[in-house]
Amino acid sequence: MSVWDELVGQQEAIDVFRAASESELASATSHDSAMTHSWLVTGPPGSGRSNLAYAFAASLLCRDGGCGKCSDCTQVAARTHPDLATLTTERVIISIDEVRALVQSSQYSPAVSRYRVIVIEDADRMAERTSNVLLKALEEPPERTVWILCAPSEADLIPTIRSRVRSVRLRVPSVPDVAKLIVARDGVDEVTAERAARHAQSHIGMAHRLATNPEAAARREETVRLVLNIMTVREAVLAAARMIEIATDDAKAITEERDGVELDQLRRSMGIAEGDAIPANLRSQVKGLEEQQKRRATRSLRDGLDRILVDLLSVYRDVLRLQLGVSDELINVEFENELRAAAAARTSEDTLATMEAIGEARERIDANVAPALAMEALLIRASRSEVPA
């Protein structure tokens, strides 16, 4: 099985990257139309941007073009290949020091492969000053260095970087394609996989979580029920508070287990047995890890709130479809009776206004507005969309 086999619904993008990695001229001339030294993979969350980036990296570093079985492919999958450098952040932004270190490492020659490949996930999280540090590396790249950036859209990067990369846009994979992947990869039944893929709106990572984590699926179901049952301002305020609790619980579930594993690994690397006190000269390392984990928790909470808002958007999308007389392809088909009641209780104009309010809430939370205020304002707006009897 090659590195391309688990990529869902992205055949056009795969063809572009395969042509580049297989090009006979890639190592001979910069005039080769298939290969270039810098790439930008864009697409909506869950479309598989980073998966495609690492598949391309494996195809460049593998002697067989990404066989998926050799030590090169295995090391790329584990992010341990000596000619692969990666930058992914669990914070709100990528720091300038992180990019400087990566740019410096890009000057090294490949150790064992044809190329040295550098992948930056979430490249949209770079401030302009940080982006300018990367720009210099893209303007004068070493001969055998390949940069692969990942971002939701080209507009998320500064124009000077966009002009120096070759962009490959990913599409949203279909629900059947994602469900098929979940069945094959996670071993769940077809009904569970289809429901998870539909609720995740083809977001591959979220579909996996909903299909394999009953608690995550239950939290989503509660979110949908909450918004469909809001009738008054008081209920809107209470629902906003509960949704923040749901997002917090979800974030904790994602981070707590990982935090414990990281701390255990750090203790072992420092030779400290479980239960032993940490020597004073090593406490700074533990403190550094704890601060990193706090930053990750902050981002995880923000991501959890955004997932809730995306779920709310799916509810009002279904309501609008019913108002327009289109009853097929509902995302939340399990709640069809409640959706029909909501559709009858408001106008399509109000539904559209509520959907716009969800977009505004996402922007406000991203701009560090207090989540409670943003959620309350949104749900109060939604509660006032009811048509008076």
Please provide a written account of the structure.
With 389 residues, the chain is α/β, with parallel strands linked by helices. The protein has three domains: 159 residues, P-loop containing nucleotide triphosphate hydrolases (Rossmann fold), CATH 3.40.50; 38 residues; 151 residues, no CATH class. It is 57% helix and 6% strand. Strands 2-3-4-1-5 form a five-stranded parallel beta sheet, with helices on both faces. Strand 2, helix 4 and strand 3 form a beta-alpha-beta unit. Helix 4 packs parallel to helix 5 and helix 12 packs antiparallel against helix 14. The radius of gyration is 23 Å and the shape is globular. About 2% of the residues have low confidence.
Key features?
single chain, 389 residues, alpha/beta, Rossmann fold, 3 domains, five-stranded parallel sheet, 5 strands, 57% helix, nucleotidyltransferase, DNA-directed DNA polymerase activity, P-loop_NTPase
**What's the architecture of the largest domain in CATH terms?**
3-Layer(aba) Sandwich
The tally of domains stands at 3
Q: Strands of the largest sheet, in order across it?
A: 2-3-4-1-5
CATH C-level class of the largest domain:
Alpha Beta
CATH topology value of the largest domain: Rossmann fold
Question: What is the average of the pLDDT values?
Answer: 87
Low-confidence stretches: 24-32
Q: What percent of residues adopt helix (DSSP H or I)?
A: 55-70%
How many strand elements? Answer: 5
Q: Which class do the helix and strand fractions yield? A: alpha/beta
How many helices? The count is 15
CATH superfamily membership of the largest domain, which one?
P-loop containing nucleotide triphosphate hydrolases
Shape: globular
Termini Cα gap:
61 Å
Radius of gyration: 23 Å
Which percent range describes the beta-strand content?
5-15%
- Helix-strand pattern: HEHHEHEHEHEHHHHHHHHH
Described by strand count, sense and barrel closure, the largest sheet is: 5 strands, parallel
Protein name: DNA polymerase III subunit tau
EC number: 2.7.7.7
GO molecular function: DNA-directed DNA polymerase activity
Keywords: Nucleotidyltransferase, Transferase
